[in-house]
Each structure stands twice: as structure tokens, then as C-alpha cells.
């Protein structure tokens, strides 16, 4: 499908330029391209997607709370982006490999992360995060856009070996201004790499609005590299599922990379170190709250008679249980002594390393003397 190439004037137009299957009020919308990719989705699948999003929002809220209570050094909230992450991640095959940024809590949840996996990195503990081999998800990437190059490199390996899998990389609208992302797209297109690029356009690259970086839809850039793209409503979990199935089919069939721009919104701060009230226009958050991805699917299911208060209570109980386990795992972690950071760096003792250890020990001791 050819992306729109007209300037974006406002939020309403921004959403109208995105393909969808569920309107903001939950009404099902027919779509000739996307409909075939969700023909098998029944009420049970929709309830599962709804449950995933509710659990993800609860995990996210617990992460913020743990950081505010001094248990985590930082947290990158994903509230508002649940449909994009759950919809695309649930379309993946177990053999596919994901290269995320630092905000993809929902993606690692969908890939089977355990409660401790969400907090280990943000707490600065040994082991970094989850087991990449078990989840088939590369470590969370802090450097903006770097994971796109890693994904394309992996995809080139897939192509070389003739494996039946796809590399998938997630990044934000701000990352599209990075050279790494554009270089990754060049290599992917030139060598026909089986990789899917997923841009979560949440409208804010830290404190810069997306309109500063791109006055036209971001999905319109991909065809310039020879990569087909889709621009979907990122608050519509059904459209996100369909779009990812379309992209995976394209990449897995040997036709090269595909690109998805999911138009969504970051309801919280960029990270817990950020204050969005300093730059976000008054009223913008409320506008997007009325387009909440969970409320949208909730309305659709209730209109069909497929979700009631009792089922919702059960889902919330599951979410609360995950959050309790996440908190318990976090509070139960035993942090290594600071000097242990030098352990296991080299197989044999190293005089240079010993000197660094002594210098660091003296630095730590200086705080004790001040106290």
C-alpha cells in the first residue's frame, strides 16, 4: 500500500491517514488489505489481546512505582503504546528474532519474559536483563537506533543460511532522524534482508514533537529506499496484528524488508527522569486518552457481548498478580558489591585491572570518610 505523501496538519488528520480495523469507539471497520490477515481472529483471541494489554499496563505502572520508591534507577514507560507492542509481538513466530529499543516492555512480555526480567536492567543488577537466547530478543538497546543495524546484520545471516525466520526491530519516531536507522534501511533494501522495521510513532522524541522531524508521514520514507510500508493506527491492536502479519509474510517469502509505522502516543514521560508537562501542550494528553487502546478493544468486545465485568475482574486479578511477583523479585534482588564489577573481566590477573580496582576502591572510600 502506498503511504500518504501529504503534510500532517493536526492530530485528527494524523490518525485519519493511518489504516485501522477498530475505530476509536470500538466499531469494526472493513479494510480490504488488512481484513484477510485477521480472518482467523475470534472473540477468544481478542480477549487474549485485551488481557495482554491490561497486564502490560499494570507492569508498566509497577515499574514507575518501583522507580519512584528508589528501587529502580530509571524506567521507560510505555502507557498508551500497548496495542502497538502487543499487536505486533503476538504476530511473531517463535523462531523470529527481535531487536528492541528500551521501551519494548510489551514485546518482551509477549515473548515470555519473567517478572524479574522487567526490572533487572533498570536496577543495574548482574545479568543485565533476560536471557536473549530463551526469548529470542536481543538485549534492550539504549543507543538510539543502533538496534536497527544489529537486526539487519542478523537478517543478512538469515539470508546467507537460508533460514526460515525474520528479524524484527522496534524504534521510535525520534530514531528515524538517526543515521543508523537510515543506513540499516539502505543495507536491508540493497541485500533483500528479511527484516521488519517497526516505527512506534508516539509523537514525542523526548521533548521534540514529531512534526519537527517529519512534516510528512514517516512511513513515506521507506519506499524511497525500496521498502514497502504500511501506516496503521497504533492504538488499534487488531490493525497492528494484521500489519505485522503482512510484513512478516513479505519478509519471510524472500521479498526483502518491510516497514510499519504505528501512530500512537506516549501518555507518560519519556523516562521517569523526564517531566512532559514542561513541553506537552495542554489538552493533548486528554485528546489521546479518548483514544486509549485498551478502552477501544474493551468497547468492541462489550458491544459484541464478549466481555463483562466478571471477566474484566479476572483479568485485573491476573495483572495484579504479575505486578506483585515483579515487585517481590525486584525487592529480593541482592546487589553485588561495587568492586565485583572487576570480577571475571579477564581470565588471568591483570596489573592494569588491579590498578583500576584500587583507584575505584579509593573513590568509594572517599564517600565513607565524608560521612
SSE blueprint:
Elements: H1 11-16, H2 43-68, H3 82-89, E1 97-99, H4 105-110, H5 120-123, H6 132-135, H7 146-161, E2 167-172, H8 179-191, E3 195-201, E4 204-205, E5 208-209, H9 210-213, E6 229-233, H10 237-252, E7 258-263, H11 284-289, H12 293-303, H13 309-331, H14 351-370
Parallel strand pairs: 1-2, 2-3, 3-7, 6-7
Antiparallel strand pairs: 4-5
Helix pairs in contact: 2-3, 2-12, 2-13, 3-10, 7-8
Structural description of this entry:
44% of the residues lie in helices and 8% in strands. It is α/β, with parallel strands linked by helices. The chain has a 5-stranded parallel β-sheet with strand order 1-2-3-7-6, with helices on both faces. A two-stranded antiparallel ribbon has the order 4-5. The longest helix is centred in the first third of the chain and has 26 residues. The radius of gyration is 22 Å and the shape is globular. The model has no long low-confidence stretch (mean pLDDT 94).
Which descriptors apply to this entry?
5-stranded parallel beta sheet; globular; alpha/beta; 14 helices; two-stranded antiparallel ribbon; 371 residues
Helix amount: 40-55%
Strand residues, percent: 5-15%
Helix/strand structural class: alpha/beta
How many DSSP H or I helices?
14
